[in-house]
Amino acid sequence: MKNPTSLGFAILGLLHDAPRSGYDLRKVFESTPMGHYSSSPGAIYPALKRLDERGLIEGRIDRGTSRRSRQLYRPTEAGTEVFRRWLARPVGSEDVIWRLDELLLRFAFQSFLEDDRVTRAFLAAFAREIDLYGAELESQREAMPSTTPLHGQLALESGIESYRAYRDWAVRALRRFEDRRS
Amino acid sequence: MKNPTSLGFAILGLLHDAPRSGYDLRKVFESTPMGHYSSSPGAIYPALKRLDERGLIEGRIDRGTSRRSRQLYRPTEAGTEVFRRWLARPVGSEDVIWRLDELLLRFAFQSFLEDDRVTRAFLAAFAREIDLYGAELESQREAMPSTTPLHGQLALESGIESYRAYRDWAVRALRRFEDRRS
DNA sequence: AAAAACATGTAAGCTGTTACATGATTGG
DNA sequence: CCAATCATGTAACAGCTTACATGTTTTT
């Protein structure tokens, strides 16, 4: 059984916050900083169906005041299991290179966990891996022949500085969690 | 006729630098900072085929010393037209929000153009749009209730700081191009 | 009464992933 | 001669986008 996609995990996380319908989820994706995930019905509804088929969520028909049907989804026990394991996954080098968005999503949902050990480990690993990648980009810049057009040099620098910003962020975030422990 | 995807434009740009085979392109994507684009044959070869079918590139069989066949692709006139138009496209707000990677790719290839006016306009618009988006994120942070978990606040801050880094980069890059003009 | 928002979905098409397949050439 | 690398592709599948489809309830 395959793992959900990023969108699947985003949905699973939101359902751990509160039971929601497909339409509710669309609104969250449209109006909040999570908006980097698709809010189109052609993405949300099939994603909900997959999560349901894999037994990670279940839907109940909710008839509030009206007689219009509305599927309210909530996570199953298996879904919570999978969600917890996802939150605590080790941070690898490919994650920071290829799946930075998903890492930040994971971080945002770690407030679901009781204590902060997972988060502290996450941030330490995140800072370490991103530093390694930044160093690699730096050495690529140094290896650039001086004939390289200015555009190429600058494009690489934008990447380097973006990674630096994430590293600094991670270090500061880690301090915030260490303060909180005491 | 639809426009190429990001990968298509990346290929088109590389072919403006030099004629290359599918295999050559794969190596570039594997080994350089452009590596955020897929190097898998299942992506490259179909992308080449599409560019060919749309008349933007053409392949010639190149038999160097050996008798092994090797398709060397180069842009057609129509391909160069499309490429130039892509390089000079105005920078919109959705571009910085949803397609930052493609914007940086466009910037990197702008060295193909004779003079720097397009690049200066690009960087000015880029800085302006990214500032607007950063301000929106900031106001989202301020609108956060104080009950918001630390994780959520910090995740949003990571986004804000990443955008700030890009804005600072754009401002510095613009200065570099203005110096060069004189 | 009409418009907007609620609410859920499907269908076609495109792109990319993973895995497979094939054979030639070169370096040790 | 064997392994690595050169070189080009295909097939099955997953997921997303865009566009369409349908009907209900609330607001103006």
Describe the fold and architecture.
The structure is a homodimer of 182-residue chains. Chain A is mainly α and 182 residues long. The first copy, chain A, is 66% helix and 5% strand. Chain A has a two-stranded antiparallel ribbon. Chain A is elongated and about 70 Å long. The mean pLDDT of chain A is 93. Chain A binds chain B through residues 32-33, 36, 98, 104-105, 107-111, 119, 137, 140, 149-152, 154-159, 161-162, 164-166, 168-169, 173, 176-177, 180, and chain B through 32-33, 36, 98, 104-105, 107-111, 119, 137, 140, 149-152, 154-159, 161-162, 164-166, 168-169, 173, 176-177, 180. Chain A binds a DNA duplex (28 and 28 nucleotides) through residues 2, 5, 7, 21-23, 26, 38, 40-43, 45-47, 50, 66-71.
Proportion of strand residues of chain A: 5-15%
Structural class by secondary-structure content of chain A = mainly alpha
**Stretches with pLDDT under 50, minimum 5 residues of chain A:** none
Assign a percent range to the helix content of chain A: 55-70%
How many strand segments of chain A?
2
Q: Helix and strand string of chain A, N-terminal first?
A: HHHEEHHHHH
Q: What characteristic shape of chain A results from the CA principal axes?
A: elongated
Q: Main sheet of chain A, how many strands, which sense, barrel?
A: 2 strands, antiparallel
The greatest interface here is: A-B, 35 and 35 residues
The radius of gyration of chain A is: 20 Å
Q: Output mean pLDDT of chain A.
A: 93
Oligomer: homodimer
Number of helices of chain A: 8
The neighbouring-strand order within the major sheet of chain A is 1-2
| First and last CA, distance of chain A | 41 Å
